[in-house]
Design goal:
With 333 residues, the chain is an all-alpha fold. Helix content is 75%, strand content 1%. The chain is built from 16 helices and two strands. It has helices at residues 3-31, 38-50, 57-69, 76-98, 109-113, 115-135, 141-168, 176-186, 188-200, 205-232, 234-243, 248-253, 257-262, 273-284, 287-306, 317-328, and strands at 102-103, 106-107. The protein has a two-stranded antiparallel ribbon.
Length: 333
């Protein structure tokens, strides 16, 4: 299978296996009147404009992990929907922290309604999701406790990631190693969803451990993929350089003296489109990014070789395709 078809196949799997989560989450948000005021309006805007364009990777991971564990439970849909409400609250809060006012060529909640309303909207989604997870998913008491503990631990990890990332904004010279610690923490969200899939399908401890390890690798590689996507988008690259941290590939390229010199102009306050394209071309053509691809290609291949759940398990075939696509085509966007 060539590179394009491998990546496209992975995208098709995510869409086909995760779309149900988006549809039900949007319906659930639209059906709830919340405060029946501006916050309600903001959440309905999110459900109509932002959420439908999100790649449904997390509902897909719950579905595929359940399938790989041996069975797809009847309560998969309400669990995946509740989890999407929870992760959506995190997306809104993340936009506030990053001051991201546009996404998918449309205004985000913070871009349209401001920071205060966006914060309240994110809080309500979190409460809505947590309530649904505990009260609407037909889970056993043991499963409820397990999922609550896992979600809590994952949220703590994400808070650590966001706080660490924000602290790095204040540093003049951030190393790739420092930022990679943030990326590893962010990878915990994918791990969480894989573990949930194993738990609700009745997987044993060994299966859940394999799913957890797979999920962390997928989470790290997916986050790195997003870093490459931001390198290739002039709008995102401009925002990252001015308001956040440069994308990870750029931090890697800046460690080389020759690349650092070539990217010296990237420290300007104002950029033209040609400047941003030059930054992207310089970074993506650097030796450091070539080495980065090789390193993480080996990282993904090792997981494919070592993870017992993936070996000879036809029900895990789609999980294998997702990891293969990220492993072999990390820098292709």
């Amino acid at each position: 299978m060539n590179a394009t078809s491998l990546t496209q196949n992975a995208m098709n799997i995510i869409q086909s296996r995760g779309q149900f989560g988006l549809l039900h989450a949007c319906k659930k948000i639209m059906a709830n009147q919340y405060d029946n005021g501006t916050v309600c309006e903001a959440l309905h805007y999110y459900a109509q404009t932002v959420l439908p364009n999100v790649l449904p990777i997390f509902p897909a991971l719950i579905y595929l992990s359940s399938k790989a564990s041996g069975t797809i439970p009847k309560n998969l849909q309400p669990v995946a929907t509740a989890m999407l409400l929870i992760t959506s609250s995190g997306d809104i809060h993340d936009d506030i922290v990053d001051n991201s006012t546009r996404k998918f060529s449309r205004k985000t909640v913070v871009g349209k309604y401001g920071r205060d309303i966006a914060l309240l909207a994110g809080d309500l989604l979190l409460i809505h999701g947590m309530s649904a997870l505990q009260n609407e998913c037909n889970l056993s008491n043991e499963q409820k406790k397990m999922l609550l503990d896992l979600v809590t631990a994952s949220m703590v990890e994400i808070v650590k990631a966001e706080a660490r990332e924000a602290s790095l904004w204040q540093k003049a010279d951030v190393t790739p190693e420092e930022y990679f610690e943030v990326i590893k923490l962010k990878g915990g969200v994918a791990e969480l969803h894989c573990k949930i899939g194993g738990i609700i399908s009745g997987g044993d401890e060994e299966i859940i451990d394999d799913l957890a390890r797979y999920g962390r690798v997928i989470g790290i590689l997916s986050t790195l993929k997003e870093e490459f996507v931001d390198m290739s988008s002039s709008v995102e690259l401009d925002h990252r350089i001015k308001r956040e941290l440069p994308p990870y590939p750029m931090l890697c390229a800046l460690q080389n003296k020759a690349s650092n010199y070539a990217l010296a102009f990237a420290r300007r306050d104002k950029f033209f489109l040609k400047d941003l394209r030059r930054v992207s071309e310089t970074v993506l053509g650097s030796l450091e990014v070539e080495e980065l691809n090789a390193e993480f290609r080996e990282f993904g291949r090792k997981e494919l070789a070592d993870n017992q759940l993936l070996k000879g398990n036809e029900r895990a075939g789609e999980l294998v395709v997702l990891l293969e696509a990220l492993t072999e085509e990390l820098a292709i966007v």
